[in-house]
């Protein structure tokens, strides 16, 4: 074996050993996090092992079979944890669009950790970085820069995207309990999977009529549900910048998609979100379904969270003006097509009537638009949480 071959083999073994340690301690970065972030952007095959195990676990259904209880449990756990991704990791940890107490924050972090999408601080760091560089060279998961597959799953397997840059989440990193959960991000998923297994064991013994057991609940409630959850979330990275319509003229190619809004509980209104990220809801208008916002509204009635941030009226007005302009453009295009259509003799007044109807619509008076809240550090735009009336925050431990 030549010296160069021996060096490459040693380097591979060192990287593999580091990757294995990081499964248990995600802050283990020999040489420093900055050095790892400066590495070449490529797939680290050892990092792929957890994803392979997760997907291979779904094949266990061949041996454990199915029951209605296990299937519906998988569906319920998908949506409960999708809400944790969208309502907690995204709209709280990444954007601070509402407030909670320190105890409430810890509860939300534990809930979010069951999604098996690493720690809340890592998630928030990468998402804030995405907003600062969306669809530009530094964007870690832009489908326009890196391609569909890389934006969907490949970027997560790259060593350079593994460390958490705590300097970008200073508002969260000041809480030791959040840093601990972020560092040991496999603890909660392991406990969660174990709890699902023993729930199945208990149901087999005390409710045999449900037809389920421990292994079946583990496969459906953890492996299948978590795999679907991962790909549902990843669709926002890979597809929400490719499919759908653009209402707002943002500096990226973010789009609004009803289909993605259903799959991801409101996250499909991605162009809205990239226009103004600081509000709690992504579906800016009543007809844009946003289940995450509805859930957060319900939580606010319990007192767990409060201070949900609304969409500024100027942003809503801007969107309506854009919709009006799009309608006019569509009518004009239809009129041109009609002019050269053989149906012109059959319906000679249709295009003219449509144009007259559109043009008589009252225009909204232009207002000074709120800034996009996109190219700024989120930690700078979030003010300290106001004290909740009649419910002071618990003392800092």
What's the structural blueprint in terms of helices and strands?
Elements: H1 3-22, H2 33-37, H3 49-57, H4 61-64, H5 68-94, E1 99-100, H6 102-113, H7 120-132, H8 143-146, H9 148-152, H10 170-173, H11 176-183, H12 187-206, H13 214-238, H14 258-263, H15 270-275, H16 291-302, E2 305-306, H17 313-339, H18 350-359, H19 378-381
Antiparallel strand pairs: 1-2
Concise account of the structure shown:
The chain has 19 helices and two strands.
Give an account of the 3D structure:
There is one protein chain. This protein has 397 residues and is mostly helical. It contains 19 helices and 2 strands.
Keyword list:
single chain; 397 residues; mainly alpha; 2 domains; two-stranded antiparallel ribbon; 19 helices; 2 strands; disordered C terminus
N-to-C CA distance: 57 Å
Structural class: mainly alpha
Provide a count of the helices: 19
- What is the strand arrangement across the widest sheet? 1-2
Average pLDDT value? 85
Fraction of helical residues: 55-70%
- Count the beta strands: 2
Number of domains: 2
The string of secondary-structure elements, in order, is HHHHHEHHHHHHHHHHHEHHH
Beta-strand residue fraction:
under 5%
Main β-sheet description: 2 strands, antiparallel
- How large is the radius of gyration? 24 Å
Unreliable stretches? 355-369, 379-387, 391-397
Global geometry: globular
């Amino acid at each position: 074996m030549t010296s160069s071959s021996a060096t490459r083999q040693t380097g591979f073994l060192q990287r593999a050993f580091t990757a294995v340690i990081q499964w248990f301690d995600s802050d283990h970065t020999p040489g420093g996090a900055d050095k790892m972030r400066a590495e070449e952007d490529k797939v680290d095959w050892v990092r792929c092992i957890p994803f392979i195990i997760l997907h291979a676990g779904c094949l266990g259904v061949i041996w454990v079979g199915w029951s209605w209880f296990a299937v519906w449990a998988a569906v319920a756990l998908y949506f409960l944890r999708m809400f944790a991704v969208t309502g907690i990791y995204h709209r709280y940890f990444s954007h601070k669009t509402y407030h909670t107490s320190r105890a409430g924050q810890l509860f939300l972090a534990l809930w979010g950790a069951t999604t098996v999408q690493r720690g809340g601080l890592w998630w928030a760091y990468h998402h804030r970085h995405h907003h600062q560089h969306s669809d530009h060279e530094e964007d870690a998961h832009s489908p326009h820069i890196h391609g569909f597959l890389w934006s969907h799953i490949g970027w997560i397997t790259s060593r350079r995207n593994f460390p958490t840059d705590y300097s970008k989440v200073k508002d969260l990193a000041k809480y030791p309990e959040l840093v601990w959960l972020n560092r040991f991000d496999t603890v909660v998923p392991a406990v969660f999977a174990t709890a699902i297994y023993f729930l199945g064991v208990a149901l087999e013994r005390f409710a045999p009529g449900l037809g389920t057991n421990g292994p079946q609940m583990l496969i459906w409630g953890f492996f299948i549900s978590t795999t679907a959850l991962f790909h549902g979330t990843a669709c926002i990275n890979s597809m929400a910048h490719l499919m759908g319509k653009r209402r707002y003229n943002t500096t990226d190619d973010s789009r609004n998609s009803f289909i993605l809004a259903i799959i991801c509980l409101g996250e499909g209104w991605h162009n809205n979100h990239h226009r103004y990220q600081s509000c709690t809801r992504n579906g800016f208008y009543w007809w844009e379904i946003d289940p995450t916002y509805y859930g957060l509204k319900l939580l606010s009635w319990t007192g767990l969270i409060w201070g949900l941030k609304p969409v500024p009226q100027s942003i809503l007005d801007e969107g309506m003006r854009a919709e009006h302009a799009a309608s006019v453009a569509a009518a004009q295009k239809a009129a041109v097509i009609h002019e050269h259509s053989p149906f012109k003799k059959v319906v000679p007044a249709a295009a003219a009537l449509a144009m007259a109807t559109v043009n008589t619509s009252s225009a909204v008076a232009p207002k000074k638009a709120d800034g996009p809240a996109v190219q700024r550090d989120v930690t700078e735009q979030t003010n300290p949480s106001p004290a909740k009336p009649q419910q002071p925050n618990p003392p800092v431990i």
